[in-house]
Design brief:
Blueprint lengths: L8 E2 L5 E20 L13 E5 L5 E6 L6 E19 L4 E2 L1 E8 L20
Antiparallel strand pairs: 1-6, 2-5, 2-7, 3-4, 3-5
Length: 124
């Protein structure tokens, strides 16, 4: 992304600066990729915090960006989150794109017939 092409987010410098996406519901997240601006200032992303937040506003994962280049990638073991938030303090927050890669949570067993080896004590 290039600032002159209006293809990057760019915040103020002072205080707490952040960007967040709401995925609409919880998803299993395997990877978060942040594409940095390419025209200058890539180091501004160093020290930024990437949080994965569940649907109860609990932080389930928190990573800090270091050595920011054209792209920052964090991989996960199918952690469940609804929001992804990138934040910094007393620094400009600017980058071009965030990709959240994963798949929806889904109970495949819901409403499916079940069997068991034996039923007792009022079981089905």
């Amino acid at each position: 992304g290039r600032y002159s092409q209006s293809s990057v987010i760019h915040t103020h410098k002072s205080g707490s600066q952040w960007w967040q996406v709401d995925l609409g519901k919880v998803h299993f997240i395997d990877k978060i990729e942040i594409y940095n601006r390419v025209d200058c200032c890539q180091s501004r992303l160093n020290g930024a915090i990437v949080r994965m937040i569940d649907d109860h506003n609990r932080v389930v994962s928190q990573r800090t960006i270091s050595n920011a280049g054209n792209k920052v990638t964090f991989t996960y073991s199918s952690e469940v989150g609804r929001y992804v938030k990138v934040s910094t303090h007393n620094q400009y927050l600017n980058f071009a794109e965030v990709m959240v890669i994963g798949y929806p949570t889904f109970n495949f067993a819901r409403f499916k017939p079940t069997t068991s080896s034996a039923a007792s004590y009022g079981g089905v």
